[in-house]
Structures are given as C-alpha cells and as structure tokens.
C-alpha cells in the first residue's frame, strides 16, 4: 500500500512539474510573439501586411487554445484528475487566453490607433498594454462596461473570436466538466464491457 502511494505521489509530482514547464513555455511564447510583432511594427511593416498577419496570428492562437482546452478536458477525464486540478489547469489556460488577446488588441491599436474607442495620448507603454489586457479580461468574463469598444472590422473580428472562445471554454468545458467526465467514463466502461463480451 505504501509503495503504491509513493508511486502515485511521484507520478503526481512529475505531472505537476511537466504542467508548470509546459505552461511557462506557453506564456513565454505568447510574449515572444507580441515582442516579435512589435519589432516588426517598429521596422515599418506596411499596414497592408501588418493587419492580415495580426489576424492570422490571432486565429492561430485561438485554434491552439481551443484544441488545448479540449485536450486538457479529455486528459483530465482519462486520468481521472481531481476537479480542483482541472480547474487550476483551466485557470492557467484562461489567463493565457486573456493575456494573448490583450496583447493582440494592443498590436491592433499600434497598427491603427482608431481600432478601439479609447484615447491614450499620455499613457505610458505599460498603461497602454494594461488597458488592452483589461479589455480582454472584460471580454473573457462577459462583462462589457463599454469604456473600450472595437471600432474597426479587424478589432471587431478579433473581439468576437475571443468572446466565442470564452463562451466555449466557460459554458461547455468548465460548467459541464463533471457530467462530461461521468459520460466519458461511462462510455469507456461500456466499451470495455463490450470488449470482454466479444472475447468470451
């Protein structure tokens, strides 16, 4: 009994380490993409190239986060993770999504300062980035105070993308985790029963 407890603990600690390393790499990648895009803008990237590149990058990150959410759900179900550990994973993932979109909104603002209804003439670079992370947080949590609103089609498109991703993440994944876990567990149990009955 003590040996199995140690094995489980070692597995849990190694899994936790892997999760921390993976999420740190993802945070660094999000910031690296933003820094790289800022560097391109400072090198006078033409508007005709900057806007499509920003939209493609945003859609690629949205796809990654959508797949990552689903992968984490199935992994949590398959390994029978405790609910609190799954919630921690999703909290980290949601923080990454909010930061990623906040930096995307900042890039849109750098490309075209009239992309959003916010006036930041005397703001420091930190305050400007914070304003768009704040806006992203409001989008993701479904609070819309209206103090920042998208004004251009690309800004509206990327805002809609974040809201749809937030809806899928919060409504389908978080609220239905327990029922999905039970359903997938039941289906796996039924499949193993079918396999055993075929073998006999």
Task: Give an account of the 3D structure.
The protein is mostly helical and 200 residues long. It has one domain (2-199): Helix Hairpins. The chain is built from six helices and no strands. Helix 2 (47-78) packs across helix 6 (177-199). The radius of gyration is 21 Å and the shape is elongated. The model has no long low-confidence stretch (mean pLDDT 81).
**Tally of distinct domains:** 1
Main CATH class: Mainly Alpha
Q: List the secondary-structure elements in sequence, H or E.
A: HHHHHH
Main sheet properties: none
Distance between the termini: 32 Å
Helix amount, in percent? over 70%
CATH topology: Helix Hairpins
The gyration radius over C-alpha positions equals: 21 Å
Q: Unreliable runs, pLDDT <50, ≥5 residues?
A: none
The general outline is elongated
SSE-based structural type: mainly alpha
Number of helical runs? Answer: 6
Number of strands: 0
CATH-defined architecture: Orthogonal Bundle
**What integer is the average pLDDT?**
81
Strand content: under 5%
Name some characteristics of this structure.
single chain, 200 residues, mainly alpha, Helix Hairpins
Question: What's the helix and strand layout?
Answer:
Blueprint: H1 2-42, H2 47-78, H3 83-111, H4 125-140, H5 153-174, H6 177-199
Brief sketch in words of this structure:
By secondary structure, the protein is mainly α.
């Amino acid at each position: 009994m003590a040996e199995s407890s140690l094995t489980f603990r070692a597995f849990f600690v190694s899994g936790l380490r892997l999760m921390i390393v993976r999420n740190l790499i993802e945070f660094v990648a999000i910031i690296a993409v933003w820094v790289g895009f800022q560097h391109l803008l400072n090198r006078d990237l033409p508007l005709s190239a900057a806007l499509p590149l920003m939209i493609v990058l945003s859609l690629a990150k949205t796809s990654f986060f959508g797949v990552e959410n689903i992968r984490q759900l199935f992994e949590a179900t398959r390994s029978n993770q405790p609910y609190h550990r799954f919630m921690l994973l999703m909290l980290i993932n949601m923080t990454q999504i909010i930061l990623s979109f906040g930096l995307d909104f900042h890039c849109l603002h750098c490309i075209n300062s009239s992309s959003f209804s916010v006036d930041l003439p005397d703001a420091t670079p930190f305050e400007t980035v914070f304003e768009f992370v704040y806006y992203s947080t409001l989008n993701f949590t479904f609070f819309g105070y209206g103090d920042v609103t998208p004004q251009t089609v690309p800004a509206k498109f990327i805002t809609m993308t974040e809201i749809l991703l937030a809806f899928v993440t919060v409504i389908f994944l978080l609220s239905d985790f327990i029922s999905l876990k039970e359903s997938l567990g039941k289906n796996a149990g039924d499949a193993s029963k079918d396999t055993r009955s075929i073998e006999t």
